[in-house]
Amino acid sequence: MQTKMLFTLFLLICWLSTVQPETTPAKKIIQHEKEDEYDRDIHSVLREMTAMLAKQNVQIMYLQKENEAQAAKLRDVDNLKEAIQAQTAKLKTTEEKLAELDKLKPQLQVKQVAFSASLVATGQRHFGPFSALYTLAFKHVITNIGNAYNPNTGVFTAPVKGAYHFEFYIYGYGDASHGSGAILFKNGRHIFIAYEHQPSHTSSSSNGVTLILEVGDVVYVRQRATAKIFDSVNCHTTFSGHLLFTM
């Protein structure tokens, strides 16, 4: 009896092992549903990622264009800076040239020095004789470029160091006791004399000299003591000078 029961239990176990559970199809359906839902989630994520990538690509393209525009603006700014720098350099060069010209103006003006004057401005007059040397003030100024000659004193003052040439002409009436003559002085030193003595008629004498003058040196003409000089509106007696070149 016991043996028969054991055999029956063995058969039952074998049959159960060969029989498929009735719940297997339902589980498969649930599993397929889960797989389908998982696939749908993956596709949804992929779609979102694709849309996001597309949006990022658009943003990247926009940023690239904006960067290109900014780069073009920066290039324009750089070109403008270069142009401004070039103009500034030109302006600086121009200002430097103008400054040099301003410095040269006095020198150029100084290089234009010349004067010529006769002894009397109106009428006629006899000068002398005097008991001592007499400085002649040539009043009738014909030319005084640079204003280096003073007609009130008869003194020429050198405005710049250089070589100057001077000439003076002395006119007088003949006199048995007095000749006509004058001396050109530089800084109080006798340089050249022009002198003529005739007992009758008229006499004329002249002389000229080139002098090296420093700035402030003075040149003038002094009548000889006891001499007689004449001048009129015809400009017989004259004093002239001009700058030859600077040094």
TrEMBL record:
SMART domains noted in UniProt: C1Q
Subcellular location: Secreted
Major localisation: secreted
Domain C1q as annotated: residue spans: 108-247
GO cellular component term of the entry, any: extracellular region
Coiled-coil region(s): 77-111
UniProt keyword terms in alphabetical order: Coiled coil, Secreted, Signal
One matching Pfam family: C1q
Signal peptide segment: 1-21
PANTHER family for the chain: CEREBELLIN 13-RELATED, CEREBELLIN-RELATED
Name of protein: Cerebellin 10
UniProt lineage: Eukaryota, Metazoa, Chordata, Craniata, Vertebrata
